[in-house]
Amino acid sequence: MAVEAVSEILGRIRAELPGLRLLTDETDRESYRSDEASYLKSQLPMAVALPESADQVSAIVRLAAEHRTPIVPRGTGTGLSGASGGIEGAITVAFTRMNRILEIDRANMVAVVQPGVINADLKAAVAKEGLFYPPDPASFEMCSIGGNIGTNAGGLCCVKYGVTRDSVLGLEVVLADGSVIRTGGRNVKDVAGYALTHLFVGSQGTLGLVTEATLRLRPAPPPKATLLAFFADTDGAGDAVERITAAGLVPCTLELMDRITIRAVNDAFHLELPDAAALLLIESDLPGVAAEGELDAASAAAEAAGAVEQVRATNAMEADGLRQARRLALRAMEKLGATRMEDVGAPRSKLVELLNVINRVVAERGLNCGTFGHAGDGNLHPTFWWQRGDAEAEARVTAACEELYRAAIDLGGTVTGEHGIGVARLPFLELQRGPGAVRVMRQIKSALDPLNLLNPGRAI
Fold first, then answer.
1. Where residue 316 falls among pLDDT bands split at 50, 70, 90?
2. How far apart are CA 288 and CA 56, in angstroms?
3. What percent of the chain has pLDDT over 70?
4. What value does the mean pLDDT take over residues 129-152?
5. In angstroms, what CA-CA distances link 10 with 2, 13, 23, 61?
6. CB of 72 within 8 A of CB of 84?
7. Final residue of a domain: which of 187, 219, 251?
8. Element (H or E) spanning 186, and its range?
9. Alpha carbon distance 329, 75 (integer Å)
10. Which pLDDT score, from 0 to 100, does residue 21 have?
11. What is the CATH number of the domain that holds 210?
């Protein structure tokens, strides 16, 4: 964008929104260049706006439309698909200052929040009211509700409580021309018109900018009962998941870590997990003795699948320690070098096959990779690492990821279970969904954003 054009739009934004914090210094903008998918080559945004209200967001988007300037919405930057990385000549709209919990409505069991609210802060606030907000990405202590909505984030409780979309009842959204609409509301049942709320959830900022969300809450469950089951091979862990599902059990957590991940977590955080080929973290939040009964049944399924050792937490502190081992998996991998965390999924009945494909691809290509993830819903995160600056190794990882995408699709699965298409997986959306479905997606995008200014080149 020409210097004169940049000066003109930034001048208009400053004139109309004198109270807006607008970052234009190169050093300030640099920290908004990329998200957690740092292996992707992002660009430096033209400017970074930090609005504090929906009115400010509306004005920014309207002025951007008038000047044909792209907009990149951004939460806290913990995304893993490149969707909030900078675009040259674009304005990044960061929602970190729109961080208020507007209301906790106990009567209707909903919370009304701005997009910059941190997931963990919302959980803590509603817990004081005896309520529970289920979505819990591993980065819940850092990620924002707006970012969770943008990616339709998952987490450790998905197997029982679903993804973010299942907890969103309504949204306030700024459209590409700066106008504002509301979708949904506080009704548990509402089938009036198209399901616009669900359309915006997971759209990664390509259809509109969320400025407020009405979220479904649940009664706070009892403290979790927690079990770790260790296996001599990943097939056994996958078989245990299938047995647990077939038995009709619905644990609130059913997570997997392979040997490489276990060792990385032990080394990085001085833990003492047994050196098994795989472990399953199994948790129940049923009341009272029902939780122990569910874990007993899960334990029996794990033993039938060949578990070589099982450890059950005896109190809440032990349970939290066992759970933290899983949450620390990515951080442990990041200490090993440059990382790329993938997000493939398959039907639960194909989990063993997916694990075998991952192990085969890693072995054949001679790569470093640890696999962990949400085994209970078939969503795994093979995470590769290589020496920083090793372009040849990075290229081999890219080729391996593309092979995994194709294999997941062949299994009837997905190239992304919770991180989103973003930039990383764009070429594979049509392969998974088919040209007809992608054509419809493009028509929706064109109808809502005819100038293609909202996060262009992402998600679709």
1. confident
2. 49
3. 100
4. 96
5. 12, 5, 10, 12
6. yes
7. 219
8. none
9. 22
10. 98
11. 3.30.465.10
Query: How confident is the model at residue 310, as a pLDDT?
Result: 97
**pLDDT tens digits along 276-306:** 999 999 999 999 999 999 999 999 999 999 9
Sorted by sequence, the CB contacts under 8 Å of residue 359 that are 6+ apart come out as 234, 371
Q: What is the residue range of 26's domain?
A: 3-94
- Residues linked to residue 385 through DSSP beta bridges, in sequence order: 339, 368
Domain annotation covers residue 272: yes
C-alpha distances (whole Å) from 376 to each of 10, 161, 249, 281 are: 48, 12, 10, 10
How many angstroms separate the Cα of 222 from the Cα of each of 130, 235, 359, 375, 452?
Answer: 10, 32, 37, 23, 47
Between CA 156 and CA 151 the distance in angstroms is 16
pLDDT on residue 103: 98
What would the DSSP string read from start to end of 138-154? Answer: TTTTT-BHHHHHHHT--
Please state, in angstroms and rounded to a whole number, the distance separating the CA atoms of residues 417 and 262: 22
Q: How far is CA 77 from CA 96, 140, 329, 381, in A?
A: 10, 12, 19, 19
Structural domain includes residue 72 = yes
Dist CA 239 CA 81 (whole Å):
30
CA angle 355, 40, 426 (to 5 degrees): 65
Q: How far is CA 45 from the centre of its chain?
A: 23
How many domains does one find in the chain?
A: 3
Take residue 67 and report the two structure tokens written for it.
């000047």
Domain boundary among 219, 253, 284: 219
Q: Are 220 and 131 in contact (CB under 8 A)?
A: yes
Over range 361-384, report the average pLDDT: 97
Domain CATH for 22: 3.30.43.10
Quote the pLDDT of residue 1.
66
